[in-house]
Amino acid sequence: MYGDRTIETHQGYKFVKIMFPQVVFVGAVAQLLGGVAYIKDTLWGETKPNRVTWFLWMLAPYIATAAALSDGVGWAVLPVFTAGFVPMCVLLASFINKNTYWKLGVFDYTCGGVSILALVLWYITNEPVIAVIFAATADGIAALPTLAKAWSYPETETSAVYATALFGALTSFLAIQMWAASEYIFPAYLVFINSAILFAIYRKRFATQQVALLGGRRKVDFPLQ
User: Fold this and answer.
1) DSSP letters of 28-51?
2) Residue 15 domain-assigned?
3) pLDDT tens, 148-184?
């Protein structure tokens, strides 16, 4: 037994019987709610999504979903599919309010081009595992412009979408039935990239709080005469 899951080995793979597969749907709903928060902030002009990132974030998860389904993956792929559906909605919302447009530069287009190249490499391969690797690579390169923006201008991002995406990706591991690489590579990548963006968004806030805390202590320890 492995927690509430029974593991059986067959031809080198581990098949897991899930006692509570509903957790995948909970993760998918959480991602949708996070997406709604991001879309709302985009429509109100508080968040400025990078269109290169969000366009490619729409494509890569769909590619990973198609590859995983072709390899026999079940409901564990639902959070990955949702990871592509939400960016599609965000991208559409960015065209409704022109004040949410984030100016694109050479770095953005370069990342977009390399990401598309990775997608092309996926298209010409029939191996599901390699396809998922290319999809994760394309998605990661596409994330770089937003990661850089979140690092320098965290106020232009809404953290809820990344927090719920992180939660959704984690639920995938609870629904894995066959421990094949095509089933866990992309969810593992989603855990990493969403954690990185959340850190970029909150690092300044944490730093400011630490400075304020240390400043208050200094005032107590060394009062002015």
Assistant:
1) HHHHHHHHHHHHHHHHTTS----H
2) no
3) 999 999 999 999 999 998 988 888 777 666 666 767 7
